[in-house]
Amino acid sequence: MNSFGNLFKVQIFGESHGPSVGIVIDGTPAGLSLFEDDLLLDLERRKGGLQKATTPRQELDYPLFKSGIFNGKTTGQPITILFENNNIKSEEYQAQRAIPRPGHADWVAHQKYGGNEDYRGGGHFSARLTTGLVAAGAIAKKLLQGISIQANILEVAGEKDINIGIQKAIDANDSVGGIVECKVNGLPVGLGEPYFNSLESMIANIMFAIPAVRGIEFGTGFNAATMFGSEHNDAIVSTDGKTQTNHAGGIVGGISNGNELIFRIAVKPASSTPKIQTSINMDSGKLEDFSVMGRHDLCVALRAPVIVEAATAIVLVDCMLQQQHLKRVWL
Amino acid sequence: MNSFGNLFKVQIFGESHGPSVGIVIDGTPAGLSLFEDDLLLDLERRKGGLQKATTPRQELDYPLFKSGIFNGKTTGQPITILFENNNIKSEEYQAQRAIPRPGHADWVAHQKYGGNEDYRGGGHFSARLTTGLVAAGAIAKKLLQGISIQANILEVAGEKDINIGIQKAIDANDSVGGIVECKVNGLPVGLGEPYFNSLESMIANIMFAIPAVRGIEFGTGFNAATMFGSEHNDAIVSTDGKTQTNHAGGIVGGISNGNELIFRIAVKPASSTPKIQTSINMDSGKLEDFSVMGRHDLCVALRAPVIVEAATAIVLVDCMLQQQHLKRVWL
Amino acid sequence: MNSFGNLFKVQIFGESHGPSVGIVIDGTPAGLSLFEDDLLLDLERRKGGLQKATTPRQELDYPLFKSGIFNGKTTGQPITILFENNNIKSEEYQAQRAIPRPGHADWVAHQKYGGNEDYRGGGHFSARLTTGLVAAGAIAKKLLQGISIQANILEVAGEKDINIGIQKAIDANDSVGGIVECKVNGLPVGLGEPYFNSLESMIANIMFAIPAVRGIEFGTGFNAATMFGSEHNDAIVSTDGKTQTNHAGGIVGGISNGNELIFRIAVKPASSTPKIQTSINMDSGKLEDFSVMGRHDLCVALRAPVIVEAATAIVLVDCMLQQQHLKRVWL
Amino acid sequence: MNSFGNLFKVQIFGESHGPSVGIVIDGTPAGLSLFEDDLLLDLERRKGGLQKATTPRQELDYPLFKSGIFNGKTTGQPITILFENNNIKSEEYQAQRAIPRPGHADWVAHQKYGGNEDYRGGGHFSARLTTGLVAAGAIAKKLLQGISIQANILEVAGEKDINIGIQKAIDANDSVGGIVECKVNGLPVGLGEPYFNSLESMIANIMFAIPAVRGIEFGTGFNAATMFGSEHNDAIVSTDGKTQTNHAGGIVGGISNGNELIFRIAVKPASSTPKIQTSINMDSGKLEDFSVMGRHDLCVALRAPVIVEAATAIVLVDCMLQQQHLKRVWL
Question: pTM of the full predicted structure?
Fold first, then answer.
């Protein structure tokens, strides 16, 4: 299913080359000032065409409020945000349909939906659906007053210097991956539950909803596996829970401890590389060389930070509502 | 909250030093042959006292079926499994209560539950609650006929040779972490959903419910971030979806593709190290040296594989019921 | 929250005088033939302006598919259906805003949402939101091949002869209520669960989502309270579960028994009566006489049958998916 | 499934003649004083053997806390309450198994669970499972400080004088039904949501989880269908929302309006009547006369009020947590 959250729920919908993509956000407290323009900054960050190595597709991405807003404020009812799809070239997808693109969902979608999937531009699997996520995230951020969420590219193609990383992709005429780090400051203590609704569980859950994410680690993460306990443990040095180090990344026992929340995600190289690739032709049963058509990013990780922030914000609002840290009416 | 799953739901409960720990499993199809002894093998794997570097606490861990089984078969109703707590030494926890143990949930629990938490032996946060998970996993495995789930220690304390890793801990008189890899074979194509219920999302969600897990990666994982797209993409080489390589780890677009499912988790070193540590005394507001008492593992990662398998099996049964791959009655 | 269902989920949104109303339907199996026109018959039944005693508001009610349909078939992804709002007169609502209309949600909405509610035409509380429900119901009915769902007016204003009932309303220049009965034939045995997800629980849950519903009874219903057990019990007379009588209305132990499913709902008279009424003026704190403006039905029960059918169909599809009675792909 | 609730969740389990029945309650705020004896008063009200027309089975019904309580207070973790089954006579059920008892779940359970159901004493379908509900309800009532919930028998066998009603059953040597009314005072305004989580939806949902309930109506209920709108509408007479009449029963637009919450439920006569009945013998395929054995109530409605109160309290706590009306820590 395509929904997430308990008290702050998002339901995404749409297809890359269908009439629209969008999201319904249910559970936004009433009285929050909200205009369509409030979402544009984050939507702009998500958009392609701005940087080398991102797609030249011009997505207008103007969010249409279809419900839940009245007189520039949230009503407490579901907010529906629609992005009409305009700038679409679909023909080429039909031509190459028999050959499932490696790394893409073409083959599994065909199996799971019995051939009824909208295969144009990845259909429902397209990263275009993250526009809705970013829009919801921008609203969530507005609710999280006093909490800052910042995601940044940490590495591209294995390089700390992002420009070197991007140049590597351009030189190789190939797509590359990257690592994104997200830091949250100002979180109250006590968000998350032991076990299944641990803060890590909820964040990880939504991060793997972002296309191309292959791993997540909190705090010291995988390196923790090589440390001694006496090194890894963060000594609590004041009664408000501040710790000397922050190997835990701000979560202990599944629950926020008031220190900076830190996690990193691994983003694979875009499946749509300009390189010639081989795949099976499902009609002939034979392997074929082919090249992916359409307009694509060389490094999807570059667009990821704002999506990671949005997803984080969505989780945090849900947690804060569950912990009764957010009042429901902004009077 | 302490429950997980949609059609195959588990609800865990209990405290390390309370009357019991256990689990309620709702959604098991009727007619599955099930005896308490069927669970013992996996419970034994989870137990301490068997290996160097695991705790000498003798947990009897005998599962009591309190509901849902009749004449040696599941009835289709909730199965309640209770583990009575017997071998308990609680006094020492009271003595050191003012000093929250670093790396443990003591401090956050105190904040979140206003001092009402059962602090003895970690209370509800204790890894002892994973007995219930392992019991549910053993049932889930029985349902997953023809599917094998195997988790193994890949590394301890940064060493591929586990014995070297354990010796490192013993020599340093300190706890150490490790990495566990899980492989699933025989999975049908089509499990998982795009976005929020991606197979990765659900697996990651439940893995972070296991105490001490700090990271998860699927397939090539974090290394994917350093690869070119043309390298990372798995070429589909036959019409049944078999791929030449398996960098994706068996999941594409959030959906199982019929290849081996592979993921790894990072387990931090046990917070309870024998080393002297520093923490705040919440009564005096001063830092103090102290050593953690109680019986503890030097390397909790050693117990993790069977828990990881159990958690994986729980997710997979849920997915298979949602995909209608499992019949509900074993006639 | 505004969503319902487990495997077949509906999320409604919109306001009577906002940009649109609509629904997202998540969980429709792939491959079902579906055109916008397929929904028109039921939408027409729901519409006002067709009968004496229903509102003259001309709602165009043309359903726009915004996602989830490709080449005239469902894709297995969320289906978004939008109804643009056109024929709107909102001014009068502003004028009478200080006086909460008795029987309407004006006063509670104002309290709950802190004055941020869209008060025009009942806003999100308007029965106009049932268009989405009817659209989803029409899809659900298509999935329920071989199962017939028929709801009918049983009584209007206490009269079995509906025309007499309606004439009573017209003569009194007042709104009137009614009783709707719903019968389902062809249901498989085994839908529903004991206790919280009993078939009655799920049907009752969704029926009370329909505005103006005040009661529900299954089979003999309230009359069962006056019968002897030997009278009320339905004797099973054949091995396929057919019963001699059907006082249970097709559900025993929360589970469908294969006999006709029957239930009735009570619909109150529309709160918007043409009669002069008294209510508090929230600004002055004084009681005032006023008359409700806008265009309204004298008997909303007349529109209810198709909504009751839709709600029933939504529940039944969800139950059938849970019981694995519906295949997910229409190949 | 056998769970209910969003922030205050109950999971019931057990069988009438299995090892135990019980409940897990997840979401109780920490710090509430709670002893097993606190539950006894309500459990006593539910028990048989106290009144004419209720069963002579002596259920000890002593609640064992298996988790979630520490030092006489709730910890904020799942509370498991177990009732061991002791006083059991099961043999007779085996003897009459081939003949499904009319009105009972025997036949549907056999179909749904493929013959694997625990058929002894109704198994999981037994009203004995309501002990858990009553225990959870007693906890919920403690959380609802300042809110009174009172359910009473309104009618037995069609008689307002309960004793006459009961005597009718004794004279006829047959079971009889009844009507229970529940009134809640002190509710805050604003509980419940429009549409699917209307307060009526949630209450109706859980009421139909109580065995033998056949109908529910709020406020004026079915009689509303015979009234004019001008009669039925409750005039708001003060700015705090008090109404002159209370035909709505305290809920408007799905949301509590601060007036008394009133609803009634219809309870059918117990299926286990002492009268000779006819049913199919599933082995021979022939109709047979038989009489139900075991110990049973002539009027289960007599036990219902405390169960209705419990179910109501569970819903209300969940709603109040969602509305942030309940603090999570009782310091």
Answer: 0.96
